[in-house]
């Protein structure tokens, strides 16, 4: 097996639980995940299977789309419903215009402080564990990218948003910060990841489907996880040289150029066989995906 499984993570379970369910279906193949969803979030969770686990870092960099609901006037230390919301005394009621003006401050590359109740490690320990112990957890700001914040509906106190963002963005922190820019507080009451790159939730498989169905038949091409990477179709003899670690000379084509740092090598059957990088005036394998490893499920 060699592909990417688009899962629809249900409410109330961890991303690891989904991966474990997939792994039980694909043994002895490996299975991982690209982009953790909190237990209180649902939606697209990509599970690379077999050699596709070696593409995890590429999958994590794909843009993500979320639909979230944020309730103004109440707050929690976690920023979501993990804890019981507490009302803000005399909380102001932002107008739609105020929300729109505040929204624009968070578009583009921004500095975001992750929530203390997160899986980020501090001195080797998960931040949420320290926070749950009552420790004062200081989180460092990180640069994230927000491409879209669309106001789907606003009926106070609930604000419905569609957000398109880059890797590492905490949506609940975005909602809390947006509320603060409006002079109030907020808590995220629901979150659904509707897409990662071209993998959409409408095509995602439920946990029941995964447990009861043919997972191999559900796998999508690993090339879908590399939508912007140029690719080149190689002959069998060229692929053999790549597998042997040799440097291959390739003439630039409309599909790639010498300016590209990486290109995907595919065979005549449109199967991903290697990721190539420039070396010694030619191209050599940075990551190889040999067919015999695919058969043995060696990741």
UniProtKB/TrEMBL annotation:
One GO MF annotation is:
RNA binding
Q: Where, by residue number, is the active site?
A: 38 (nucleophile)
Q: What Gene3D superfamilies does the record tag this protein with?
A: Pseudouridine synthase
Where the record annotates domain tRNA pseudouridylate synthase B C-terminal, the positions are: 172-212
Keywords, comma-separated and alphabetical: Isomerase, tRNA processing
Keyword tRNA processing part of the UniProt annotation? yes
Reply yes or no: does the keyword Ribosomal protein apply: no
Task: Return one Gene Ontology term, BP aspect.
Answer: mRNA pseudouridine synthesis
Q: State the Pfam families in the record.
A: TruB_C_2, TruB_N
Domain Pseudouridine synthase II N-terminal, chain residue ranges per copy: 26-171
Q: What are the EC numbers?
A: 5.4.99.25
Which PANTHER family would you find in this protein's record?
PSEUDOURIDYLATE SYNTHASE TRUB1 (PTHR13767:SF2), TRNA-PSEUDOURIDINE SYNTHASE (PTHR13767)
- Give a short account of what the protein does: Responsible for synthesis of pseudouridine from uracil-55 in the psi GC loop of transfer RNAs.
Q: Which family does it belong to?
A: Belongs to the pseudouridine synthase TruB family. Type 1 subfamily.
Q: What is this protein called?
A: tRNA pseudouridine synthase B
What species is this protein from? Roseimaritima multifibrata
Q: Which gene encodes it?
A: truB
